[in-house]
Every structure is written in C-alpha cells, then in structure tokens.
Design brief:
mainly alpha; Ferritin
Amino acid sequence: MTHRPLPVWLIGELRSDHAGETGAIAIYDGILAVTRDADLIQFSTRHRETERGHLVALEDVLPQDERSALLPLWRVAGWLTGALPALFGTRAVHVTIDAVETFVDAHYQTQIDALDASGTHADVRALLEQCRLDEVEHRDEARDLHAGTSGPAARIWSWMVSAGSGAAVALAKRI
C-alpha cells in the first residue's frame, strides 16, 4: 500500500494493530469453539471475517520482519478472551466485544489523530479509519445486543479486558 518508508513510531503502532487483529480473530475462534447458539455463531463468523480483512490489509503495509514476535501469545490471549465469556452465554460475549471494541476505537483514533498531525501517510490513515469504523460497528452491534446494561461482574470483566488490551498494545509496540 504505502511506498514511503514508515517512521519508527508508526511501525510500532502498526505492529500493535497487526497483533490486535490477530488477537481479534482468535477471540472469535474462541467463541466459536464454545458456543452452540446459532445467532452467536453467525455474529462471530461475520465479525471474524471483517477482522481477517483488517489483518490482510495490515499485512500489506507492515513488513513481515516488523510484526510482533509475540503473535502466539496474542492468539492464546484472544482465544481465551472469546472462549471464557462464551461459557457464560451470549450476553457475556456481547459485553466482551463491547469492551474490546471500545478500547480499539480509542486506540485507532489516537493513531489517526497522530497521522493527521503529521500530515503524512494518508493511505495508512485511510486504512486505520476504515478499520476503526468497522470496529465501532461491531461495538455498537454488541452493545445493542446486551442492551447496554451490565452488573458488577460484567463491569469488572470489561475493565479487565480493557486493561489487558492496553497492556497488550504497549508490549506489541515494542516486541
């Protein structure tokens, strides 16, 4: 996609995005490994395909030697992030997707803002904006399906998912 060399800061950001999309596919794989609910299977299959599209697009931008060395860890963490709530049912899955995508929306927006400020890499900016909009759509769908309400356990789980996502991003930017 981009032909100009990417600055070091942007390589780190894209590394975290690539790791995140890898983990996102694994989240849906984890859900699909556990659930038998037809609606949740359809939801997860559709969303996983969108995440696969994001991953392919990021692989066109980020050189293979710049990708996270921790991809196996991101796959396991993602799978568990999907499978565990699936054990508790569809509402728990929707709360999880809401939490993940809320984090991802803010993460992509920060990157887009930085690219806007630099006035460079419009092609990367456009890719990140499209990914962000897709993730917002996933968040909103999940939020509608769980009716936007959550009890203490769901709020704690959402906080854990968000904090874990933040830690993963920080690590993936470097390794």
